[in-house]
Amino acid sequence: MIIYIYDIKNLQVVARPIIENYEEFKRNPTKFYPDWSLDNNISSEIEFNDPKLINGIIFEKTREDKILIDNKLELLQDGEIIEHNKIIVIPKPNGYNIQWINQEWIEVATLEEQEKILRENIINKTSELARIQTAGFGDNKLELEIKKLREKHMEITHELALMEG
């Protein structure tokens, strides 16, 4: 069996003695590693890739530790940001072709895709309105939704024109 001896200051493996059992090592560590010191070393039956030390116990760093302690921001996933030294998850909004760009969710559908969706939504709402009115009921709320859809379409078209221009 191999025991991994770490330097407490930098948590690098400094020795890998081969032993019969871990209990024997614990009873007399200098027999297997002459430079052993409780002040400078810690041992483990596990070799950690990214160790961390908490209250004298050695652990493997989590993905969150690597991000927050080692500043490995490339490990952040879509929708995650760091705020006040914590990883915050921003839920992905509903929409068509939403992507995480520059730490925010952005709808990246083409103008044609957005127009198609808008037209489908308007047709569906108009059909629903016609069905309701045919049944003898009016619905101003539906008309307001259609107006909002058209306004949103105009905003999106304007934003895309600015981006392309």
What can you tell me about this protein's structure?
The chain has helices spanning 22-27, 29-32, 63-68, 111-134, 140-164, and strands spanning 4-7, 13-15, 41-44, 51-54, 57-60, 80-83, 86-89, 98-101, 104-107. A hairpin with a 5-residue loop joins strand 1 and strand 2 (13-15). The strands form 4 sheets. Strands 2-1-3 form a 3-stranded antiparallel beta sheet, with no helix packed on it. With 165 residues, the protein is α+β, with helices and mostly antiparallel strands. The chain is 39% helix and 21% strand. The relative contact order is 0.07.
Radius of gyration, in Å, reads 31 Å
Question: Structural class of the helices, strands and pairings?
Answer: alpha+beta
Could you tell me the number of beta strands? Answer: 9
Helix content: 25-40%
Shape, please?
rod-shaped
Task: Write the element-wise H/E pattern from the N-terminal end onward.
Answer: EEHHEEEHEEEEHH
In percent, how much strand structure appears in the residues? 15-25%
Ranges where pLDDT stays below 50 over 5 or more residues in a row are: none
Major sheet characteristics: 3 strands, antiparallel
- Counting H and I runs of at least 4 residues, what is the number of helices? 5
* End-to-end Cα distance: 67 Å
